[in-house]
Amino acid sequence: MKLDIDVIKAPIDKHLDEFDRQFKIAMKSSVPLLDIITRYIVKRKGKQVRPMFVFFSAALCGGITESTYRAATLIELLHTATLVHDDVVDDSLERRGFFSINALWKNKIAVLVGDFLLSRGLLVAVDTGEFELLKIVSNSVREMSEGELLQIEKARNLDIEEDIYFEIIRKKTATLIASCCACGAASAGADKETIEKMYRFGEATGIAFQLKDDLFDYEKSAAIGKPQGIDIKEKKMTLPLIYMLRNLKYGERKRVINIVKNHSNNPEKVAEVIRKVNDSGGIAYSHLKMIDYQQEALEMLMAFPESNTRDSLENLCKYMVERKK
Q1: What does each C-alpha distance from 166 to 49, 174, 278, 300 come to in angstroms?
Q2: Which of 11, 58, 177, 247 is 20 to 30 A from 160, comparing alpha carbons?
Q3: What is the pLDDT of residue 228?
Q4: What is the DSSP track for 1-57?
Q5: What is the pTM of this model?
Q6: How many domains are contained in the chain?
Q7: Tell me, what CATH number does 46's domain have?
Q8: 29, 31, 32, 37 alpha-carbon torsion, rounded to 10°
Q9: Domain region containing 244
């Protein structure tokens, strides 16, 4: 069965509409330039996957409340702040098919906009006394920063082993989805055990999500008919590449590392690495790991009573690894 994101989120459409309204209010500023930029950010929003995890988790753990809207707004503000800062760090000129903030308004303004969004998120929690939500999300922001720095540190020598790779993606990606689920549960008044259970569900889902992203780089793109190799060009060590390097003889391993380090802008050499990764079984291995984490998440979800909400979360979890982009 093909999973459609619009069908999955249909049961919470009205809640997402109200979230959109509150999110726009939280972004408003009396500074005209800042207001123009935040309106631009709102226009290029994505699929709303993170707010969906917040609202479905709340519905599963007691019911959606006013606190749930604040949780979704807090997470989206802090997440958007990290994306704006990431684009500056990566010198990226595009985000979701639109020009990035730094591409249009330069780095200085982009950094300040990220700081503004971070402060707005903190104030959403502090002004309403949502200290439990603030604690959960602040921990995620810390872990995301640590994960990014760990990846930068290891990328210098391309010496990332599998356990370090999983630590990086747990911190960089999975912790934010985990905080969505934990905040949703906390906003519904769930006990600590349930909040922790939802956090672990989100973490496993987030790891599966990142593994899917990493696989896209080695699989044929529907748009261009060939693998993209973007991660190789950016010298990122993902699981398919790590698996392949682990199974190469010393001389060949050294040659591939040299390509990634020094020839990552050469399309022919990048294509060669992609072929080697495919031939090594790195794609199949990464796919199995992805399914393992998805199954781990779904097993945790099955501990909750059967309901339409549980079905929606199950489908959202499945969508994270079955999506085409």
Answers
A1: 22, 10, 20, 20
A2: 177
A3: 67
A4: ----HHHHHGGGHHHHHHHHHHHHHHH--SSHHHHHHHHHHHHT----HHHHHHHHH
A5: 0.90
A6: 1
A7: 1.10.600.10
A8: -60
A9: 5-322
